[in-house]
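# step 3/5: fold
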Amino acid sequence: MIYFDHNASTPIDDRVLEAMLPFLKNFYGNPSSLYRQGRICRSAINAAREQLAALICAQPSQIIFTSGGTEANNICLTNLSPHSKLAISAIEHPSIIEPAQHLKSLGHDLNYLEVDENGLITQDTINEIALLKPDMISVMLANNETGVIQNIANLTCQLKNQSIKIHTDAVQALGKIPIDFNQLGVQLMSLSSHKIYGPKGCGALVFKNATDVKTLFSGGGQEQGFRAGTENVAAIVGFGKAAELAKIEFSERQSHLLNLRLILEHSLSVIPGLTIYGQQANRLPNTVMIGIDGIDGEMLLMQLDQKNIAVSSGSACASNLNQPSPVLSAMGVDPIRAKSAIRISLGKANTEVEILQFINQLKSLILKE
């Protein structure tokens, strides 16, 4: 199979699995226990925290392990006090949009921040935020559908005197572009393991100050008292190993992915009626979202699946809605054209040969060659 859906999930790296196996088979003790088995597990969690912190230029004490990016996003929004104001970009992941809508139903003031045709927050939008004076804003670092990268550091710099708590969903950015938590200037950041060749079911919330986070689960002192419950040691170890490998291999991976993306985009450019969304913006090195005149995106996805090629029609967390992508709608794309969109997200094991095979199959399907 040609797998071009790495923004949805990545295959677990063999080296990550190898690091996890001892904690699935031999070191099964509770990390809160004081005997040797427990201490080994606790030490492994601490090591993973250090590995992840090194990748994002943060302190290990600033990291809370969660069940994934969705939980981290939800934790951030539950920090809002009653009737406080929330603003989110119009291109956020469903795990931000849906909790935000729920908060609105509870009486919170919710505003959506507009983006331009490239999916970027504009200066006018930043000026609007300053006037709205929300208590919290959430703007993703890199969009999961288009790959467009926001200049979060510029946003936080302009709003630094506004007393606004700023969160960024960095799930798709992790391991693909450099991330320095302190330089971003945010108070909260969400991450996920299975986007960087780690296991599913593990993520992290990164915080600037302890006061930025409220306890979500009570009943234990795990994760510095912020998230009660026995830790998923094997998954956390896997996340740490994946982060370590992402840091070591960062330049190699980024160069490889960007080279593949440029080959892919060059090959796509000869197809009539094809648009690459966000092409004029700074994007992730692995992500290309396209629209093709007169083509139904989900039908094309299924046809490619029959050819043993896996792509996506957008966010995997919203793939069953059969609606135009909210991201493309926010960018001003016509609804009918938006429904033609498919996303190709490349991974470190993909090759130029696979790109050419994909292009040949794509042409045969849409040009009826």
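# step 4/5: annotate
The two ends are 22 Å apart (CA to CA).
# step 5/5: archive (pending)
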